[in-house]
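Hey, can you fold this?
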Amino acid sequence: MKTMYKRIYSELKNGRDVVLASIIKSEGSTPRKEGAKMAYFEDDSTLGTVGGGKIEFDCTNICKDINSATAPFTKEYILDHNEAKNIGMVCGGKTTVFFQRISSSEDTIALFEKINDIFEKNERAFLITSIKNGKIGIYHDNEVFGLSPSFDITPFLKNTPTMTEDKSYFFEPLSNSEFVYIFGGGHISQALCRMLSLTDFNVIVYENNGNFSDIRLFDGAKRVVKADFTEINENINITHNDYCVVLTRGHESDNEVLSQIMSKHPSYLGVIGSKKKVTFMKEYLLSCGFSKEDIEKIHSPIGLSIGAVTPAEIAVSITAELIRHRASKR
């Protein structure tokens, strides 16, 4: 999503309008859910997806025909083969797509500049879209920019996209402020960083060895912290919204990391290791005074059980587990 908004901002700055297709309602089984978007640009290229197949084909053709005089509108796609208006997909649900043309006006450019700044700073914000006129606003730092709804919007600021009852406004989280902290910079961490960045996680790598702390090794990382594993609290601030993945080079350094981050109660905590190593780890944490209940919350061995062997495969299994955890939070 960050890449899409960055491209939109670039297009608008260069005087080129953009057409945005957004899913604002999804019922039953559908390829994509509320908040999924596809941006269509003047060079006929697109970014994002609203589900692929015939939905995306039709949406792309619609976007091509939208001009500056076209008012924003919605279109429903029926994916149930039992209904007469089915478009030829048999997922079983219904999807409503909202189409809007975003003009390269001075105000709109300033708004998308702010959106990109929010992404760069990894700050929490919400996108507000007026379904009636297609105008866009942002809720950020307790202020609303670009729109002026005449009602209390706080009940609609949720982790999942939300529509007002009268279907006049659509609210959606714009960015996630949580981080994934990867402790250790080895081959698995390097592969994991790439996977996580591709799935919209914000990654920070923490490593004590200079040979494994070069940010060029970690595609998509926000930053790499080179510091001793005994000084975690002095160098980073882990919150209960964050994810922690412990992949250091030995059980002693793993335990050193765990003894400091357990008390932070991160949203997700996973540690790589064999069953024997996990048993040793649990005994150590019990000796440190941590409760059995807290210790049992640790995901270890880390990752979904898919028979992963290589660093890339292990990275896929860990990423999948983090995606599942993120989805459960929604």
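Oh, and this one too while you're at it.
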Amino acid sequence: MSFLNRYQIKILRHLLFNPDSRFRDLNASNLTSDHLSYYIKSLKMLELISRNDDGKYNLTAKGKEYANTMDTDKAIIEKQPKVAVLVFAEREFRGKRQIVLQKRLKNPYYGFEGCPTGKVRFGEPINEAAKRELKEETGLTAEKAKVVFILHEHVYSPQRELLEDKIFHVVKLAGVTGKLGNFEGGENKWINLADFPKVKKKFYSDMDIYNWYLKPPKEFFVEKPYEVDEF
């Protein structure tokens, strides 16, 4: 979705409460006709609003979904937590449990090491997102996927500035096959699961996640704040 300015957002807000609005009804910001026409046209191009044969404007299904993320009191689009997967891709090698360890080669957290992660796409099942991320970031495929627990993280700077708001679905992947490779954003290798605590530059929540993976928490859904010195 392209960035919307405050005039476009006000048009969407109006249509949330006032379907079947005419052109003049959309001018809550007292714009010139040319400016209002420009913003309406841009919203139509983004398929957020439509105009019927009677000359009345409405939100499209896509527009309703987008505008539903709005703080209507402030007329701004709410920033949403990032929904992601974190995958423990397992195999057995010479009698030991192994997992894929990824060294992150992009910001933030450049140079940190941990399990592969990735965003869940709109409309995508969690287990399928985990398998897709594994394939995209390592070249491996997984036969089975199971969500072990969900972690909602709030990540703060030492000055208590909120840096990130993330919801991780921690997924165990089994039946992993293929040749392990790298990608632009990370280098991958197999390590023994028992050796994970020895990784030197781990992410802030990695030991919690590792311990909960070995022994799932009492609650399936966990929320915890973290403070980071390096981002």
